[in-house]
Structure formats: structure tokens, C-alpha cells
Design brief:
Number of strands of chain A: 3
Helix content of chain B: 55-70%
Number of strands of chain B: 3
Structural class of chain B: alpha+beta
Order of helices and strands of chain A: HHHHHHHEEEHHHHHHHH
Shape of chain A: flat
Radius of gyration of chain B: 17 Å
Shape of chain B: elongated
Largest interface: A-B, 34 and 28 residues
Distance between the termini of chain A: 67 Å
Radius of gyration of chain A: 29 Å
Number of helices of chain A: 15
Order of helices and strands of chain B: HHEHHEEH
Largest sheet of chain A: 3 strands, antiparallel
Strand order of the largest sheet of chain A: 2-1-3
Number of helices of chain B: 5
Strand order of the largest sheet of chain B: 1-3-2
Strand content of chain B: 5-15%
Structural class of chain A: mainly alpha
Oligomer: heterodimer
Distance between the termini of chain B: 46 Å
Helix content of chain A: over 70%
Chain lengths: 415, 129
């Protein structure tokens, strides 16, 4: 008995966690109903095998939660008049749909307008000289009496502002939730449509994205781009994901199946990558190209512990940002060009690796080839981890950290 | 673990007929749930059993409960907790007046659809015999 009831508790605990975005009241109700269901279908003794069977039919907590969420919250918001519920549904959808993002803004503006119309109508009787619509020169201005003294110019509406303000306020109050609900319905349909239409539709857009990205790397090579092209790729990727109704997890920015595993594999891979680079490929390339990589930018770090420590956090952040931009965004866009068949991923990783190397033009030809090789390895790590960005990000950060340590110890070739 | 076990049951069937049946059932599920509540209030497990006994429709719990939550949110059904002799309360669902009208509309549209499909299938059936 103990086992079965413990298993049930664990399951419901996980489900409750996965349902945390639903209102608490709804969540408690769901958990209570499922507890009652399992007790009925597994029998009052809660034998472990019977509980296992009952839970199996319900599906994993994550799957079940996803079904509840897509059926429950949004359906309620579609019929609701509550500004709060509408806003939270729109905020959820705004991550995937431009319509919803615009509608969320419209919701705020709409209620804001309604409130200011009401305020104008209701405060006119108390401050007739300070509330009203004035024509000052060419400009219309609505005053609500926060300012001292009457505004200059000619008053247009007089006492008519009371009924007119009430009317407009009611109209805005009436129209705003209706427009929001329509937007929710539209973006929900959009979402299911884009999910079905899938990645194939937007090849022209993919070509455009890739062209812009290559343009940035070229511009960066000629030092026209301020700072680095990575922030621009991130911005471009963000816009592109939103326009296409994609989520971060569609490009691999998601929790790995197991954190300890991802961290361990990432750290080991990163350290190996850096060791191979420093002691094998860089000396080899330097010999071939006749010049070592130009790492003069890093010269100040040698023997300077406080500078190394100061730059560690930005270094890690930058490593992750580069992974999101290159592996997360660009690799996916190159694969989109071919319609995302399974054969396209390795060529995409190779091309993006080349682009990654090119973007390190500041380090000379040896540095560029070396970084291209590193980019290729990180790309293969991305593919090997089931297109999850955590492993390559950890590897990238680990490799850079080791490089920093080697530079600090003055053991890095080329400095 | 649940994922592994559930994955087997819920995976997209490879047989084209089975895949088509999954799609077909999904659309009808809302109607048969409303229909099962036509004459009395039922709790979740009873609804599931009724669907399995009465129609041979094999429906998983993981589909029915979220759907019930939506039907309630849409106002087609009402729910109340009833203390049962089993020792724990059960959540009973019943049709609201609006839900009855909704169910009738769905049933009508289902019947006309089924009749239309039946007519079109007549030549196939002759062949089959």
C-alpha cells in the first residue's frame, strides 16, 4: 500500500509543478479529481501495480499538464471578460504570435483610454475650469486637472465632455476585451496552423535570415559592426522566432533531460576541445600558415588574476550567447533552407562552423581556421545532444575558461 | 518511466487505418461525453467506463479529464463534489441547459454527416460483399 500511495503523491506533485501556470484554484481542483480517479480505478488499497497501471493511462505529468493547459486556461480566457485573465492568456501567446503581442499592447491602451475617458467625464463637475478638451494653437489637448490653472486656448466641448466621456469610456471598456478575445482565438488558430504547416513554408524567409546573417559576418570582418555580430544575431533570431510562431525550445534552448549529465558531458568535451586546440591544432595550423593566431587582445590577462576573474562572467555569458546565436539560430535556419530533412543538419553545422570561424577574423587566418574547427565540434555536440543547447554552451564556456587559465599562466602558445 | 510506458500506448500508430481512427475519434469525443451525461450526472471514471462499454471507443484517461475541464470552462457542463461511500469525494459532472442545447446541435450535425457519408459509401459496401 505504501508504495502505491507514495507513487501517486509523487505523480501529483510533479503534475502540480507542471501546472503552475494555471490559477491555484483550478490546479487544486484538477489534482483532487485525479487523486479521486486513481483511488477509484486502482482500488482503495492502492496496490502499487494497480496505481502504476492507472497512472500509465493518464500519461506522464508533463503531457497531461500540457493537455490541461492548452484546453483549460486559453479556452476560459476566450469567453472571459476579466482583464487579468485576458492579459495572462495574451502574454502566454505573445511568445509565439505577433497578433497576441500587439493585442496585449492594445489591451493595455484600450483599458487606459477607457479609464481616462471616465475620469474626464467624472471630474468635470468638480473642476470645470481644469478638465476638458482644449484647442491650443493647432493641438488638441485633453486636460484632467492635474495641472494648476486653466490651460490656454479655446475649450471645445464644455459640459458635453460628461456624456461624451461616459459614452466613449463605455465603448472602449466594451470593445477592448472583445478585441482581445478575437486576438486570442486568432493566434490560437495561427498556432495550430503553423504547427501543422510546419517548417517547410518559410524557405524564402530562411534564405533572407541566412543572407542577413552572412551579411553581418562580412560586415564584422571589415569592422563595420560595432562590438560583435553576436548581439545582432540574437536580436535577429528573436524576431525571426516570434514572426514564425516558434518557441525557444524549438531551437534547443530548453532544460536538458538530465542536468548533471549535460554539465558533465559539456565540461569534459569543452576541456578536451581546448586541450586539442591549444596543443595540437593551433601549433599545426601555425606551422602550415606560417603565423600563430593573433591573440594580442588577450595579452593583458597574463598574470593578472583580478582581470581574469572580472572577465569570467562576461566570458560565460558570451559563450552561451554565441551558442544560442550560431548553433541555436543559424544552424536551424540553414537546415530550414533545405526543409529540415535529416541529411541537412551536418552540412548546416559545417557551414555555420565556417561562418563562426570567419567571424573571428580578428585572430588572423590561423585563428579563423581554428575557431571554425571549434565551431564545427560545438555544432556536432549540439546535434549529438538531440539539438539541445545546454551541452555546447557548457562546452564553449569550459573551453574558454581553460583558455583563460592557460593565458593567465602564460602557457598559451602565441601569446 | 511514465513517459516510456505511455509513449508506447500513445505513439502515432503506423498503420494508416489506425491513424485515421485516432483522428476520427478525437472529433467525436466531445459529443459522446456530452451524450453520456444526457440523463444523469456521472464522475470521470463512470464516463470513461460508459464510453468503453457502450461503444467500444477506447479512450485514455489523459484525454478525457482535460477535455472535461474545457467543457466545464465553456459552460457546457457543471461539476460538483459529492461525498461517496468509497470514503473519498468524487467530482460529478452534469449538463447545463446550454450544454443540452449544444449537445443537440452537435448530435444533429453528426447525424447528417454520418448519413451523408453512408450514402456515399453505398457502392463500396456492395463491392465489399
Amino acid at each position: 500500500m505504501g508504495d502505491g500511495s507514495h507513487r501517486l503523491d509523487t505523480y501529483l506533485g510533479e503534475l502540480g509543478g507542471a501546472l503552475r501556470r494555471l490559477p491555484a484554484e483550478q490546479r487544486t481542483e484538477i489534482l483532487a479529481e485525479l487523486r479521486s480517479h486513481v483511488r477509484d480505478s486502482a482500488g482503495p488499497a492502492l496496490d502499487d501495480p494497480a496505481v502504476v497501471a492507472a497512472l500509465e493511462r493518464l500519461g506522464s505529468p508533463a503531457e497531461l499538464a500540457a493537455r490541461y493547459e492548452s484546453e483549460g486556461l486559453l479556452a476560459r480566457a476566450e469567453r472571459s471578460d476579466s482583464p487579468w485573465l485576458l492579459a495572462s492568456a495574451l502574454a502566454r501567446l505573445a511568445a509565439e504570435s505577433l497578433t497576441a503581442a500587439v493585442a496585449l499592447l492594445g489591451l493595455v491602451v484600450g483599458y487606459g483610454l477607457a479609464i481616462s475617458f471616465f475620469l474626464a467625464a467624472l471630474t468635470k463637475p468638480f473642476a470645470p475650469t481644469r478638465v476638458g478638451l482644449w484647442l491650443a494653437g493647432e493641438e488638441l489637448s485633453l486636460h484632467l486637472g492635474w495641472r494648476d490653472g486653466a490651460p490656454v486656448g479655446r475649450e471645445l466641448l464644455g459640459w458635453w465632455i460628461v456624456p461624451l466621456g461616459l459614452l466613449l469610456g463605455v465603448a472602449a471598456w466594451w470593445a477592448t476585451p472583445r478585441l482581445a478575445r478575437r486576438a486570442i482565438r486568432r493566434s490560437r488558430r495561427q498556432r495550430t496552423r503553423t504547427a501543422r504547416r510546419d517548417w517547410r513554408s518559410g524557405r524564402a524567409l530562411a534564405l533572407f535570415d541566412v543572407a542577413v546573417a552572412v551579411g553581418f559576418v562580412v560586415a564584422d570582418y571589415f569592422e563595420i559592426v560595432p562590438f560583435s555580430s553576436t548581439p545582432f544575431f540574437l536580436a535577429l533570431g528573436w524576431i525571426s522566432l516570434r514572426l514564425r510562431g516558434r518557441r525557444y525550445r524549438d531551437v534547443g534552448l530548453a532544460r536538458p533531460k538530465s542536468w548533471p549529465r549535460a554539465l558533465a558531458i559539456g565540461a569534459v568535451a569543452g576541456i578536451l576541445l581546448e586541450l586539442v586546440s591549444t596543443f595540437v591544432t593551433v601549433p599545426l595550423l601555425s606551422r602550415l600558415a606560417g603565423q600563430p593566431p593573433d591573440l594580442s587582445d588577450f595579452q593583458p590577462l597574463v598574470g593578472n588574476l583580478s582581470l581574469v576573474l572580472i572577465f569570467l562572467a562576461p566570458l560565460w555569458l558570451g559563450s552561451c550567447a554565441e551558442e544560442v546565436a550560431y548553433r541555436g539560430y543559424l544552424v536551424n535556419r540553414f537546415a530550414d533552407l533545405a526543409g529540415r530533412p535529416s541529411w541537412a543538419w551536418v552540412p548546416a553545422v559545417i557551414l555555420v562552423g565556417a561562418l563562426f570561424g570567419w567571424s573571428h577574423g580578428g585572430q588572423g587566418i590561423t585563428g579563423m581556421v581554428q575557431e571554425g574547427f571549434a565551431g564545427l565540434v560545438l555544432g556536432l555536440l549540439y546535434l549529438a545532444s538531440g539539438r539541445n543547447l545546454i551541452v555546447p554552451s557548457v562546452a564553449h564556456a569550459a573551453a574558454n575558461t581553460l583558455a583563460f587559465v592557460l593565458i593567465y599562466l602564460d602557457r598559451y602558445p602565441g601569446i | 518511466m511514465y513517459r516510456a510506458m505511455h509513449g508506447k500506448a500513445d505513439a502515432e500508430p503506423s498503420d494508416p487505418v489506425a491513424r485515421w481512427e485516432v483522428q476520427l475519434r478525437k472529433g467525436g469525443l466531445e459529443l459522446v461525453i456530452l451524450a453520456s451525461l444526457w440523463s444523469e450526472k456521472l464522475y470521470g471514471l463512470e464516463i470513461l467506463r460508459r464510453l468503453a462499454d457502450g461503444s467500444g471507443l477506447v479512450v485514455t484517461e489523459g484525454t478525457v479529464y482535460p477535455l472535461l475541464a474545457r467543457l466545464k470552462a465553456e459552460g457546457w457542463v457543471d461539476a460538483e463534489w459529492v461525498e461517496a461511500e468509497a470514503g473519498h469525494p468524487r467530482k460529478y459532472y452534469r449538463l447545463t441547459p446550454g450544454g443540452r442545447r449544444h449537445a443537440l446541435r452537435l448530435a444533429r450535425s453528426w447525424s447528417s454527416f454520418a448519413a451523408g457519408v453512408d450514402r456515399l459509401l453505398a457502392p463500396l459496401r456492395k463491392e465489399d460483399r
